[in-house]
């Protein structure tokens, strides 16, 4: 499987105006060739505004598959700019159907591990002025995913990306999104995802709540 870095992006939060509302967001990233240092905490020059839903040790790199750009351009009749989804890496050859939670990859000098599918937010729509895009990325399981850093090192736009180890549980990011958005009462599916040790804590908490609800449905 050939994997290519199409774009590498980094950026700090900034204040912007969406309509009449002021907001601070980290979704605006600038393209760079690198090299950038990827630490256990974050990517060099990169930070988030909302630490509850972004960043942290389980989300040091945000990834978006390059293959989806053409799909959304056709679906919405638009022309998305590079880095449209605020990702750090745009990768070709590694979609949500291909990555499993817990898979480890070498990216340049760094070693990273898939921790969760991305739960998109409305900031995507506000940034791009496209109504409903963020919801469709979730419903169609084309929302991207996150890496944690297992080994620090420099990464660059021309870095090689290769699979080091496939997680034995075989739980894809696509399966995770389908379960949460289309099959959240499926206790077996929820348990299957929860069984993956590498799963990010925020997803683990969310799925445990869904599992409790699935196992103890309210009457009438």
Automatic annotation (TrEMBL):
PROSITE patterns: MOSC. Residues 30-164 form the MOSC domain. Signal peptide: none annotated. It comes from the Bacteria. This is MOSC domain-containing protein. It comes from Tumebacillus amylolyticus.
């Amino acid at each position: 499987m050939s994997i290519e870095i199409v774009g590498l992006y980094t950026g700090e939060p900034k204040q912007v105006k969406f309509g009449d509302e002021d907001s601070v967001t980290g979704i605006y990233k600038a393209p760079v060739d690198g090299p950038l240092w990827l630490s256990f905490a974050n990517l060099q020059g990169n930070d988030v505004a909302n630490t509850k839903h972004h960043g942290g040790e389980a989300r040091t790199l945000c990834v978006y598959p390059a293959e989806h750009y053409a799909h959304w351009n056709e679906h919405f009749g638009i022309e998305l700019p590079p880095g449209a989804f605020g990702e750090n890496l745009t990768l070709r050859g590694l979609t949500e159907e291909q990555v499993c939670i817990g898979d480890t990859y070498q990216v340049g000098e760094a070693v990273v591990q898939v921790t969760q599918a991305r739960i998109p937010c409305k900031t995507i729509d506000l940034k791009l002025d496209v109504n409903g895009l963020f919801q469709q990325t979730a419903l169609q399981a084309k929302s991207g995913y996150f890496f944690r850093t297992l080994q620090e090192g420099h990464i660059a736009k021309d870095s090689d990306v290769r699979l080091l180890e496939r997680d034995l549980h075989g739980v894809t990011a696509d399966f995770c999104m389908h379960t949460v958005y289309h099959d959240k009462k499926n206790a077996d599916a929820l348990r299957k995802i929860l069984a993956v040790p590498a799963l990010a804590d925020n997803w683990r908490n969310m799925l445990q709540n869904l599992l409790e609800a699935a196992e103890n449905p309210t009457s009438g």
